[in-house]
TrEMBL record:
Keyword Hydrolase: yes
GO molecular function terms noted in the UniProt entry: acetylcholinesterase activity
Gene Ontology process terms (BP): acetylcholine catabolic process; choline metabolic process
Gene: achE
Organism: Pseudophacopteron canarium
The Carboxylesterase type B domain, residue ranges: 8-118
Biological classification of the source: Eukaryota, Metazoa, Ecdysozoa, Arthropoda, Hexapoda
Gene3D superfamilies, A to Z: alpha/beta hydrolase (3.40.50.1820)
PROSITE patterns assigned to the protein according to its UniProt record, in alphabetical order: CARBOXYLESTERASE_B_2
Gene Ontology cellular component terms for the protein in this record: extracellular space; plasma membrane
InterPro entries in the record: AB_hydrolase_fold, AChE-related_enzymes, CarbesteraseB, Carboxylesterase_B_CS
Official protein name in the record: Acetylcholinesterase
């Protein structure tokens, strides 16, 4: 989904972490991967995860990844191997594993979820 009121940039490799207050200890982690494949962002207002986090003892992580030609262009050459968007998702999941404990999350209790092309 694309919204003309959402600022977009090629600087798109980051994660959003939403955690309840007070900070939990050893909380379950849910990682949401937005769909769209050709366009989209995890920062749209319709994807505000604060309500879910306030109702449950979870930490919710969403990620940005390259989409469309920046993320999935393939030329069949070693310098453009394709699937950069999937590489971005893999790197975000490694970041969660390595850093989520600092937010009160349990790196051994992570659930992935998404919509449409978000969970390949």
């Amino acid at each position: 989904m694309w919204n003309p009121n959402t600022p977009l940039s090629e600087d798109c490799l980051y994660v959003n972490v939403v955690a309840p207050r007070p900070r939990p200890t050893n909380a379950a982690v849910m990682v949401w991967i937005f769909g769209g494949f050709y366009s989209g962002t995890a920062t749209l207002d319709v994807y505000d995860h604060r309500t879910l986090v306030s109702e449950e003892n979870i930490i919710l992580v969403s990620m940005q990844y390259r989409v469309a030609s920046l993320g999935f262009l393939y030329f069949g050459t070693s310098d453009v191997p394709g699937n950069a968007g999937l590489f971005d998702q893999t790197m975000a999941l490694q970041w969660v594993r390595d850093n989520i404990a600092a937010f009160g999350g349990n790196p051994d209790n992570v659930t992935l979820f998404g919509e449409t092309a978000g969970i390949p």
